[in-house]
Design brief:
Layout lengths: L4 E5 L5 H11 L4 E5 L3 H7 L11 H8 L4 E4 L2 H7 L2 E4 L19 H13 L4 E5 L7 H11 L7 E5 L9 H6 L4 E5 L3 H15 L7 E5 H32 L3 H9 L11 H4 L10 H14 L3 H28 L8 E5 L14 H11 L3 E5 L5 H8 L8 H7 E3 L3 H5 L4 E4 L11 H6 L6 E4 L6 H7 L2 E4 L18
Parallel strand pairs: 1-2, 1-4, 2-3, 4-5, 5-6, 7-8, 9-10, 9-12, 10-11, 12-13, 13-14
The structure holds nicotinamide-adenine-dinucleotide (NAD) and uridine-5'-diphosphate-glucuronic acid.
Uridine-5'-diphosphate-glucuronic acid (UGA) binds next to helix 9.
Length: about 475
C-alpha cells in the first residue's frame, strides 16, 4: 500500500511542523492539516505563522498551496486521506478521576469519533500525540464500534520526539522514527506504508518498529528519562550551593564519562536552569506516575513523582533566593524579568519557569516588568492570570508591565532576573543596564548564561544557580532551601 493523501488532525506545535516537513520531503503526497480553531488555521495560511520555529517559515512557504494545505474542513480532509495523523493536545486532566495527573484524552476521543463518523473507505490512523499506554486500543475500540460497512482501520503509534526551538532540524534529522503497530499481516502492511513515507529522507536503520504498547510506553519513558536527568543535575546544584562546589564543573566532570554523556548537562549552554518547563515533561511524567499507580506499582510511581518534586523545589528555591537577597522583601520593588518563553527559540510559554517565578513575586507585591523577544503581551497575561497560578487577575494587571525593550524594562529596577536563555541576553550592554538601575543592582541568572565575573566587575550583585559567587558589597544569605 502506498500513501498518497495525508490528513493531520491538530495544527499545533507538533501537527504543523511535522506535517510541513512531510509535505516538503514528499512532493507526491498531498498533506492537509486541519484544526477546529479557525484563528490557528488563518495564521498558518498567513505570513505570520502561529508558532515560531527556526527554519519553519521557509519550509511552509515553499510547499503551502502546492501539496500542503491548512483548513478547518475536517470532514473533507478525513474523507480524502488514506492515512490520518492524530496530533491533538493531551493535557493533564484538570477535573474528575485522575485530576492533576492523568492525561485528558477527550480531544483524542473526539478526533477518533470524527474519523469514524465520516470515513467511507479503510484508513490507517496514526496516534502521534503523546498518550498513556493502551490509548491506541481505545481509539481502535471507538473506530471499530462505529465503522461503516466494509471500512477497516489499522491503528499505529508514531510518537513525536521533536523539541521546540529545534523542531525543523529534529524532524529533518531525527535520532529515530518510532512506529508501533499490531503484529498481524494487516498491521505489518500499515507499518510498512508509514515507514515508506519517512524513508524518503530518514535512513532505514533509524526507523524503529515494534508493538503498539512498547511504542506508546517508549515515548513516556523517553520524556521521563530526560526530565529525570534535569532533576538529577538540579538536585546536585542545591548540594553545590551548600558546599561551595560548582555545578558546572561537576556536570563537566560527570559528562566526560561516555556512559553518562554531556547532553542535557552541559554547563554553559543548557544546563542548570530554574527547573524544566514546557508543555510535556511535567505532563508526561505525571501521566507515567498515574499509570504506575493504576497498575498497582506504588514504588515505581513514587520514584517518578520525585522527578517532579525536585523540579518544584528548584523553582521555589530560585524565587526564594530573589526575595532573600532583596533584603527579605520585594513588596513595591521593581523587578525586570528577561525571558518568558520556556526555552530559547520558541514563543511557547506553557509551564515556563518564568510563570512561576513571576507569580511568586507578584504574590509578594513586587512590580514586574517583563521582556521577551518572541512572546506578546496577551500571551503573558493569559499565563499569569490563569486560575491555576492566580486568584486575583486585577493584581496582575496592576503589578505587571510588558516591555518591548530590555533596557527600558530594567530602568529604575532593583533587580533583573534571567528566566530564558535567549542568545541576545548574553550580548547586552550590562554597563548601561547597571547605570540605569537602583543600587545595589541585583542580577539573578536563572539560566547560567552570563559572564558573572564581568557583571560583578561592573558592580552587580550576581546570584546564579549551582555555585556560590565571590561577593562584592552585599551580604549574601545562606543558600535558600525551600
Ligand atoms: P497544541 O495544543 O499546540 O495543538 C493541538 C491542536 O489540536 C490545537 O490547535 C487544537 O485546536 C487541536 N484540536 C484539538 N482537538 C481537535 C479536534 N477534535 N479536531 C481538530 N483539532 C483539534 O499541542 P502540541 O504541542 O502540538 O501537542 C500535541 C501532542 O503532541 C500532545 O500529545 C503532546 O504531548 C505531543 N508532543 C508535543 C511536543 C511539543 O514540542 N509541543 C513534542 C512531542 C510530542
Ligand atoms: C522535550 C523533549 O526534549 C522532546 O524530545 C519531546 O518530544 C518533547 O519534550 C515533548 O514530548 O513535548 P521540549 O520540551 O520542547 O522537548 O524542550 P527541551 O529542550 O527538552 O526542554 C524542556 C525543558 O527542560 C525546558 O524548560 C528547558 O529549559 C529545560 N532543560 C533542558 C533544562 O532545564 N536543562 C537542560 O539541560 C535541558
Amino acid at each position: 500500500m502506498s500513501v498518497r493523501n495525508i490528513c493531520c488532525i491538530g495544527a499545533g506545535y507538533v501537527g504543523g511542523p511535522s506535517c510541513s516537513v512531510i509535505a516538503y520531503k514528499c512532493p507526491d503526497i498531498t498533506v492537509s492539516v486541519v484544526d477546529l480553531s479557525q484563528q490557528r488555521i488563518d495564521q498558518w495560511n498567513s505570513d505570520n505563522l502561529p508558532i515560531f520555529e527556526p527554519g519553519l517559515d521557509e519550509i511552509v512557504k515553499s510547499v503551502r498551496g502546492k501539496n500542503l494545505f491548512f483548513s478547518t474542513d475536517i470532514d473533507k480532509s478525513i474523507q480524502e486521506a488514506d492515512l490520518i495523523f492524530i496530533c491533538v493536545n493531551t493535557p493533564t486532566k484538570s477535573y474528575g478521576l485522575g485530576k492533576g495527573r492523568a492525561a485528558d484524552l477527550k480531544y483524542i476521543e473526539s478526533a477518533a469519533r470524527m474519523i469514524a463518523n465520516v470515513s467511507c473507505v479503510s484508513k490507517i490512523v496514526v496516534e502521534k500525540s503523546t498518550v498513556p499506554v493502551k490509548a491506541a486500543e481505545s481509539i481502535s475500540n471507538i473506530l471499530r464500534a462505529n465503522h461503516k460497512p466494509g471500512v477497516k482501520y489499522q491503528i499505529l503509534s508514531n510518537p513525536e520526539f521533536l523539541a521546540e526551538g529545534t523542531a525543523v532540524t529534529d524532524l529533518i534529522n531525527p535520532d529515530r522514527v518510532l512506529i508501533g503497530g499490531e503484529q498481524t499481516p494487516e498491521g505489518l502492511v500499515a507499518i510498512k506504508a508509514l515507514s515508506d513515507v519517512y524513508h524518503r529522507w530518514v535512513p532505514e536503520e533509524n526507523i524503529v518498529t515494534m508493538n503498539t504498547w512498547s511504542s506508546e510506553l517508549s515515548k513516556l519513558a523517553a520524556n521521563a528519562f530526560l526530565a529525570q536527568r534535569i532533576s538529577s543535575i538540579n538536585a546536585m546544584s542545591a548540594v553545590c550551593e551548600a558546599t561551595g562546589a560548582d555545578v558546572s564543573e561537576v556536570a563537566h566532570a560527570i559528562g566526560k564519562d561516555s556512559r553518562i554523556g554531556n547532553k542535557f548537562l552541559k554547563a554553559s549552554v543548557a544546563s542548570i536552569f530554574v527547573g524544566f518547563g514546557g508543555s510535556c515533561f511535567q505532563k508526561d511524567v505525571l501521566n507515567l506516575v498515574y499509570l504506575c499507580e493504576c497498575l498497582n506499582l506504588p514504588e515505581v510511581a513514587a520514584y517518578w513523582q520525585q522527578v517532579i518534586n525536585i523540579n518544584d523545589f528548584q523553582r521555589r528555591r530560585f524565587a526564594n533566593r530573589i526575595i532573600e537577597c532583596l533584603f527579605n522583601t520585594v513588596t513595591n520593588k521593581k523587578i525586570a524579568i528577561f525571558g518568558f518563553a520556556f526555552k530559547k527559540d520558541t514563543g511557547d510559554t506553557r509551564e515556563s519557569a518564568a510563570i512561576y517565578v513571576a507569580s511568586y513575586l507578584i504574590e509578594e507585591g513586587a512590580q514586574i516588568r517583563i521582556y521577551d523577544p518572541k512572546v506578546d503581551r496577551a500571551q503573558i497575561f493569559s499565563e499569569l492570570t490563569h486560575p491555576a497560578v492566580c486568584n486575583n487577575p486585577d493584581r496582575v494587571e496592576e503589578l505587571v508591565t510588558i516591555c518591548d525593550d530590555p533596557y527600558r524594562a530594567a530602568e529604575e529596577t532593583h533587580a533583573v532576573v534571567v528566566c530564558t536563555e535567549w542568545d541576545e541576553f548574553v550580548t547586552y550592554d550590562y554597563k548601561r543596564l547597571y547605570e540605569n538601575m537602583l543600587k545595589p543592582a541585583f542580577l539573578f541568572d536563572g539560566r547560567v548564561i552570563l559572564n558573572h565575573q564581568s557583571l560583578m566587575d561592573i558592580g552587580f550583585h550576581v546570584e546564579t544557580i549551582g555555585k556560590r559567587l565571590a561577593r562584592n558589597n552585599v551580604n549574601r544569605p545562606i543558600a535558600a532551601t525551600n
